[in-house]
Amino acid sequence: MTLKAPIHQFTETQSIQISRRDFFYISNILSAFRILTVPFIFFLIYHARWRLAITCGAVAVISDLLDGFFARRFNQHTELGYILDPVADKLALTAGVFALVLSKTPFPVWAFTVIVVRDVSIVLGNIVLAYKAKMITRSNLWGKATSFSLAITLMFYLLRPILQQLPDGIEFYSLCLALVFVVISTVSYARHMFRVLETYSHVGKEGNSRTAGGHGDPPLR
Question: In angstroms, how far apart are the furthest CA atoms of the chain?
């Protein structure tokens, strides 16, 4: 039994189906490439190679924009892409922020904790959806806004050591704005996941009731 739901940016895929062909789509290759940049981003930030870190981060951001473009341009929307794209975003951003914290920059530890808790919660929620409803949640508008604002914040923190002309406090104000999106996107995902699980549970109970009441398929003879 599959829960029927329209597919758009606020809904989930109806099933998880990954074919060998999906791995050769350019949009998915770019997402996989972004995952490969994660250790380099961490290493460069941790060792204060600010210019190289900014360059590597910019490449990751550009690859994120391009994989979305190619997915739309060539109709390469796949289940693999729905998994790889948000995972790549979360890994790259978390690695960058974690490296900032470890390198003793002014990035607040409490903000890093909020970001990690949010990402772990979304991942666990998707695992529950995949197990119970055979679905995965797509990134919605709030999720994309969160990733973009965190990437901009990360760039400001990387620019501060080499560009003292930046307005005072711009990185912290940018972080505050990003955290607003973090909270909104977390609430958005949570409401959506609970609604899907509630609907799935209700549909399942109705199906069981019909079967118990003799309205199901006739038994094999």
Answer: 82
137: β partners: 12
CB 114 within 8 Å of CB 178: no
Round the CA-based radius of gyration of the chain to a whole number and report it.
21
Q: Which CATH architecture best describes the domain 20-202?
A: Up-down Bundle (1.20)
The predicted-structure confidence for 64-106, as pLDDT tens digits, reads as follows: 888 888 888 888 777 788 888 888 888 999 999 999 999 888 8
Helices (H) and strands (E) in the chain, counts: 7, 0
Tell me if residue 10 falls in helix, strand or coil. coil
Q: Global pTM?
A: 0.78
Three-state DSSP class for residue 114? helix
* Sequence ranges of the domains in the chain: 20-202
CB atoms within 10 A of CB 132: 13
Contact indicator for 83, 139 with CB cutoff of 8 Å: no
In the structure encoding, which two tokens stand for residue 94, read together? Answer: 């978390």
Nearest-angstrom CA–CA distance, 178 and 182: 6
Is 34:61 a contact under the CB 8 Å cutoff? no
